[in-house]
Write a structure and sequence with these properties.
By secondary structure, the chain is α+β, with helices and mostly antiparallel strands. The chain contains 15 helices and 17 strands. Helices cover 54% and strands 20% of the residues. The structure holds adenosine-5'-diphosphate (ADP). The site of adenosine-5'-diphosphate has 21 residues, from helix 13 and helix 15.
Amino acid sequence: MRRSLVWRIAVPFIGLILLSVGGVSLYFTNYTQQGYTENLHDSLKTSGNLLAVDIANRILRGASYDDLAPVIQSYADLTQTRITFIRSDGVVVADSVADPKTMQNHLDRPEVKAALSGPEGAEIRFSDTLKRRFYYLALPVLSTGQTIGVIRLARDLTIIEGELRNLRARILGVGATITLLSVLLAYLVAQGTLRPLRKLASKVQHLKEGDPNVDLPSGRKDEIGVLSRSFEQVARQLSTQMADFQEERGKLEAVLRHMTDAVLIVDKDGKVTLANPAAERLFHLTLDQSLGRSLVEVVRQHQFVELWRASRDSRKQQISTLETSPERNFVQGTATPLESSLPGSTLLVFQNLTRIHRLETVRRDFVSNVSHELRTPLASLKALTETLQEGALEDPPAARRFLKRMEDEIDNLTQMVRELLDLSRIESGRVPFDRLSVNPMMMMGNAVERMRLQAERGGLNIQVDASQSLPEVMADADRIEAVLVNLLHNAIKFTPPGGQIVVSARQDGDKVVFSVRDTGIGIKPEDLSRIFERFYKADQSRSGGGTGLGLSIARHTIEAHQGSIWAESHPGQGSTFYFTLPVA
Ligand code: ADP
């Protein structure tokens, strides 16, 4: 590339120089040759004319052809020329070099022919007689207006041609030197012109490699300077634009990476061109698996593919919600055509509404459960008051019974309202937990003692099974005791007489795992995952009048202590409830 530029500049110069030097040499040698020939012609003509007049006069005075030979010879010697006198019939009469008798008839010689019919005849020819090239000039000899013969003068061209060759060689030598010097000059000029360009190119290379602070020859006043300044400007603009671009890109990446909604960009053919981490999580894919693949492969939900298609075809935003399978997530998809920024592409945003949906369901269930739970005792109270009003008041023993039942219902209602209040306060974090370092044995002992009478009444054996060396835990002792009482209460409630209840605790790393095990009716697997929900009762008929709030309160209490609570059960054999508390 570099060489070619040098040569591209130098070669036309060299061509031009060669052409002009060659042309000048050719013209000059031709011109000189022509000059020589003309000079020769003129000098031969002058001598020839003089001789022709002399011969004509001599013949007129009666001189014979033999008398003419010495005259011709002396002219020839004088002018260093071969002179031949030819009669008008072509017979050679005298010749300064050869014997005329040996010479052929010259009528066929072109110069002789021309001189016989015109003012002169000239010819350059190889002489058969002398075996050299000659310049022949033939002039008519006129006597009393008649051509009586032809004087032919011949000059050997060998010397002239030798001189011409010499001259040509000298011109060529000078031409070649000029050419060589010019080639060198052209090459140097080309190199000199290209050197700053090369320097500029290598600096621009640095620019390309990301170094915007290169020292370009921008101080120059010529075109290179203009080019350098333009480059510097472009480089500065580029680096600012790159910085802006990187910043914008960084912001966009941060938003995309940290947003909880899944984002996909799909091109007009349905290929995914962008996917954020939330999309990968929602559709269980990695980036490599999603980019460049078709939307249907990525989302695997026909309805979302339809949503994209509808938005692409209508060029309008489309929204649809569906429950994914098998995860059963509630996802709302919004498809927006990216008309101006990315023509043909569509932005798909997916919001996982599962939590909100679940909360909504829980709220709805809660309201219906509260109403249901309130309705039963209220209906019972209503019936009891009506019965009293309708005459039972007149029957004091019956009235007392009714009043006792009314009191029980009111106690139930009060208990439920208290538990609901408790739950709501714990849930909203309004209950201040007094967490201190406490001995697990103390809490378990207190709870068991509180429930022992009730257990014994139910014909159940209750005991604590834990080592005295357990570490202390961080807990609000009253609240944890309430949880243990609640678990024991359930165990007693759901264990037939003769059963056994064991409360135990063991250390597991930085926490203590508590458990309440019974040999009761157990919990079916489908209920096990739901018993910690508010108002959930596994078996309504056998719930023993509970509110279904106890385990829910227990879960919130334990979670507020940074612990966890769960249950294991074998229906018909018994259940074990576990919860953990952090070691103090
Ligand atoms: P409640 O006992 O007031 O009904 P809970 O929230 O304490 O409410 O318990 C929820 C449900 O869990 C109970 O109705 C019962 O069906 C089930 N359950 C709890 N503890 C046990 C247990 N030890 N054995 C069998 N089922 C239990």
